[in-house]
Structures are given as C-alpha cells and as structure tokens.
Amino acid sequence: MMKNIWFMLLTVCTMFAFSACSDDDEKNPTNPVSNAKVPATVQIGEEMIITGTGFTAPGIALYLEDAEKNRTKLDATFSAAGATCTVPELTPGTFGVILTQEGHEWELGKTALEAGPNPIVSPALPEGIVYIGKQVTIGGSGYEASDKISLNQEEGDAIEISEVAVTESGLQFTLPKDLPAGTYTVSLIRGVQSWTLEGTLNVQKEKRIKSISVENGFEITITYNTNNQLISMECSDMGLAWNINYTENQITTECSIGSIDELTFDLQDGKIIKSTEPNPYDETETYNIWTYNQNLLTSVINEGELYQGENFEIIYSGGNISEFGSNKFKYSEEAQHAISGTIDVVYALHLPIIIYKEDFFLGLFLNKNTNASTLIPTHISIEEQNEDGSSGYNDYPIHATWENNTLTLKCDSQMIGTVVIAYEDIE
C-alpha cells in the first residue's frame, strides 16, 4: 500500500515537473537562430547579410528597430546560411536587428545604418564669394527636382532650402535674404539621406565700389540710385564728372568736361556690345565692339581703318585674367578671392592708363552682367626697357590687404603703385 502511495506521488511530481517545463518553454522559447552575426555598419539601399543557422525555421521575420522602438519589417530572403535583404530608406543611425517567431522575439545584434554613396557625379561648390539673396549653382550631375540643400555652421540651426532648380550646370538655388554672412558647409538632402559636399560656401553681403584712389594720381567716387544703378562718377584732380542715364537697351553718359558731350553703350542681354568711340568725326570708327566668351570680356576693338586709339584684348586662365595689354598676371595658392559684380581688380590696377579712353573706362563700371576674375592677382609681369636698351619682363608682387571693407593693393612697380578700393554693403 505504501509503495503505491509513493508511486502516485512520484508520478504527480513528474507530471508537474514536465508541465512546468512546458509552460517555461512556451513563455521563454529558445531562439531558433544560432551563431547570428549582424554587420556593424551597412549602407542604406545596399544589401545587408546576416549569417547564422536556423533561419529556415517556420514563421520567422526580421525587423529594424530604432532608439524610439519604432520597427520596420525587412523584406528578407532566408536560407540555411542566413538572411539577406536590402536596407530600406531609413534615417541613418543605430538600429537593433529583431527576429520574431509566433509572437516571440529576440535581438540578434545592432547595426549602424549609414547614408548610401553620394548619387551626384562630380559635385562642386562655387569658388570665391557668394552673396546673400543671390543665385548659387552647385556643379555636378545626377540631381533631382525633389533634392534639398542644407546650409550648416558650427553654431546655429541648419538652414534648409527646398526651392531648387536642376539645370545643365548643376543645382541652382537662391540664398535667403536673411541669411547671416559667414562660412557654411553644404549638405545635399534626398529623402531621409544626406551627404556633406566637399568644401565650404563663403557667404557675404553683396558689395559695390564706393571709391577708388590711385597713388599720386586721382580718386574716383561713385553714386548709386535706389535700384543700385550707377548714376554718377567723379574723378578728382582731373575735373571729370559723368552723369549716367538708362533705357532698356542703352546707357548714355554726359561728361561735364571733355571733347565728347555724350557716350552711348548698347546692351544685349544686359552686356555692352558696342560703345561710342572718343573720336566721332570719322564715320569708319564710330563704335568700339565688345566681345565675350561665356560672359568673360575678351576684347574691345574698333575695326575702323583710320582708328588710331588703343584696342584692348584680354586673355584668361582658369577664369582669371592672365594677360591684359602687354602685362601678365599670376595667381598663387595664397591669392585672395575678389569681390564679384564690380570692376575687375586687374582693370583697377590700370586706371591711370585706361581712364583716357572714356568709353572703355566707364564701360568697365557699367557692364554689370559680365564675370570678373574670381581671384586677386599676386604678381604682375611688366614689359620694361633695361639699362642696356634691351626689353624684357620684370616680375612684381602685388600685396592685397582687407580692412574695414577696403581693399588695398600695393605693388613695387612705379607704374602701378598703390590702389585703394573702398566698398560698401548693399542693403
């Protein structure tokens, strides 16, 4: 009888033990996958491979889980060797890889999602200074109309620009009028991904020339109207002053002193294409012709047979003037960026010479839709006569300094001397 009682107790305990184990297995089932290895990093849009055994078990699924516990199901392919999937478009960051099966889940590991490769071919930020409220073009190809631009500084919030235009030259957008001046890194945003482009954007307020002083020579002062149009110029120590008037396709100037009462400048697409020649008495030389190469002025020439004036030809290298007249210019790695939208620094260095050819001199200030050199030259080579009567080029450094919106150019050549250009911000 006692044996039967002990046997019954043993049976009950065994059944209870098996029942407890069964309940435990249901509450804490064993992970069907073993030896799982999750990649430490993976790019968005690229293939992710998770190795391990047991991925062919029935009813399993994979998810990516972010720090806020939001999950995204992966369209994975399972095999005896592991699982593969394409990483979906998610915000880059660290994600847990979650395996689920019939209401149970396990974290296989963590992976850092990184932005995919930059889709833009040869992206290039503009060199030199760009101006608040003005259009900017980022070079390269592969842009889409839905792309956005983010401007970032070390301090302050990122500024996002969504109004962009895709052109043959790249991606165009306009800098906000309330954008603070400074240096910005630029990121391209496409969907949830972003890429920081190489280089920086040097943003400044648009400037215009207020005056130019030439050492032992003269000072030019300029007046503008509310539309930022130059309406008068005065040259001290020479008694010259010009009043300037505008029509749709022509600019006229009246000089208070000189043989010509009026100069005319004909415009096409905003650029000067011809101007009055200072000697209007010969019909064969009435106009000087202005020619360009991609918005760079290349020559101002009078084709009249009897023309005795000086023609001007300009040669460029890398978008900067390398030759003007008989002088040559160099730009070292230390060359500073020039202010665009105003007279080219190379011309400013030659004002004592070109001021006597009035239409060319005034046209350089009035020709707003042309490009100027992006850099300030660091050297000038001047053809000079030596003591022995021979001629050759002598090289002179040009020292450029900025202070209080004033550019000072100093050159050891007596022909150049010191030129001071005072700028003012355009509000």
Q: How would you summarize the topology of this molecule?
A:
Elements: H1 2-27, E1 34-37, E2 41-43, E3 47-53, E4 60-65, E5 71-73, E6 77-79, E7 82-86, E8 93-101, E9 104-114, E10 121-124, E11 129-131, E12 135-141, E13 148-152, E14 159-161, E15 165-167, E16 170-174, E17 182-190, E18 193-196, E19 201-204, E20 207-214, E21 219-224, E22 230-235, E23 240-246, E24 250-255, E25 262-268, E26 271-276, E27 287-293, E28 296-301, E29 312-317, E30 320-324, E31 327-330, H2 345-348, H3 351-354, H4 358-366, E32 379-385, E33 391-403, E34 406-411, E35 418-425
Parallel strand pairs: 2-9, 11-19
Antiparallel strand pairs: 1-3, 3-7, 4-5, 4-8, 6-7, 8-9, 10-12, 12-16, 13-14, 13-17, 15-16, 17-18, 17-19, 20-21, 20-35, 21-22, 22-23, 23-24, 24-25, 25-26, 26-27, 27-28, 28-29, 29-30, 30-31, 31-32, 32-33, 33-34, 34-35
What do you see in this structure?
The strands form five sheets. The chain has a 16-stranded antiparallel β-barrel. It is elongated. β15 and β16 form a beta hairpin. The protein has helices spanning 2-27, 345-348, 351-354, 358-366, and strands spanning 34-37, 41-43, 47-53, 60-65, 71-73, 77-79, 82-86, 93-101, 104-114, 121-124, 129-131, 135-141, 148-152, 159-161, 165-167, 170-174, 182-190, 193-196, 201-204, 207-214, 219-224, 230-235, 240-246, 250-255, 262-268, 271-276, 287-293, 296-301, 312-317, 320-324, 327-330, 379-385, 391-403, 406-411, 418-425. Mean pLDDT is 87; it is low at 12-22. The protein is mainly β.
